[in-house]
Amino acid sequence: MAIGFFKSKKDKGLEDVILPEHIGIIMDGNGRWAQKRGLPRKAGHRAGAKNFRTITKHCANIGIKYLTVYAFSTENWKRPKDEVNALMELFKSYLEEAIRDFKDEDIVVRFIGDKTAFSPELQALIKENEECSADRKGMVLNIAMNYGGRDEIVRAMRRIAERVENKEITAGDITENDISDNLYTAGQPDPDLIIRPSGEYRISNFLLWQSAYSEYVILDDVLWPDFSKDMLEQCILEYARRNRRFGSV
Ligand code: FPP
């Protein structure tokens, strides 16, 4: 459902509502943002990466406990080679800075997705970011890179099937919790709110299992590089107005 609430005045502030514990963001619209300015798509990704830092820090500052951002999907390898290369370069330069950058906000950096497809250099940076932030106490930031919801579920199934093969459990023992416990996000709460700017009404293989009861806020008129701190707060207020029933009445 698209919303036009940005035009209306805030009726409540963040201090008046229960914040979502976990927010997911599909950072969509970088390419169109660049195109509108006559710039190459990689300029849009650069602007998107800059905004990712701003919004991540703001989430941590307002008290969000978990943030998951979709940075690169298992399907994004199909993009033109020079765009994929530009994104890999951007990840590298960003991750070099992130080690210092998120220290002040006390952010724990984690990566979800299949890391083995990345260059050894990028894999080393991923490892360094995870290790040096692991003992922090603040917001957990999951960066979804080479991530696909279906791929994640298949991997979970394989792990569970191995336990059945080894006769540790029977097929009838398998529960929803077993599946959750074998996802990249094991031990974390499911996302309460998922935000997608740029007007696409799709899930795009993002947190498929975990989003069963997430509230979606889709922004029609905003591309990710222009998504502001104020818009984030408006999305949270919209979330707070929703009546979550989880299948009940
Ligand atoms: C989708 O927009 C965006 C991506 C596939 C890349 C997202 C990556 C970033 C914002 C950089 C983040 C950096 C780090 C280090 C996490 P699109 O290219 O599909 O836009 P379009 O739909 O307008 O073409």
The SS-based structural class is: alpha/beta
N-C termini distance: 21 Å
Question: Which architecture per CATH?
Answer: 3-Layer(aba) Sandwich
With strands numbered from the N-terminus, the spatial order across the biggest sheet is 3-4-2-1-5-6
> What is the CATH level 1 assignment?
Alpha Beta
Look up the CATH topology: Undecaprenyl pyrophosphate synthetase
Q: Total domains, how many?
A: 1
Helix content: 40-55%
CATH homologous group name: Decaprenyl diphosphate synthase-like
Shape: globular
Radius of gyration: 19 Å
Main sheet record? 6 strands, parallel
Could you explain the architecture of this structure?
The protein has 249 residues and is of the alpha/beta class. The chain has a single domain (22-148, 191-241), classed as Decaprenyl diphosphate synthase-like (Undecaprenyl pyrophosphate synthetase). It contains 7 helices and 6 strands; from the N terminus they run βααβαβαβααββα. It has helices at 30-36, 41-62, 81-101, 120-133, 149-165, 176-181, 229-241, and strands spanning 22-26, 66-73, 108-112, 140-147, 193-197, 215-219. Strands 3-4-2-1-5-6 form a 6-stranded parallel beta sheet, sandwiched between helices. Farnesyl diphosphate is lined by residues 27-32, 45, 48-49, 52, 71, 76, 90-91, 94, 143.
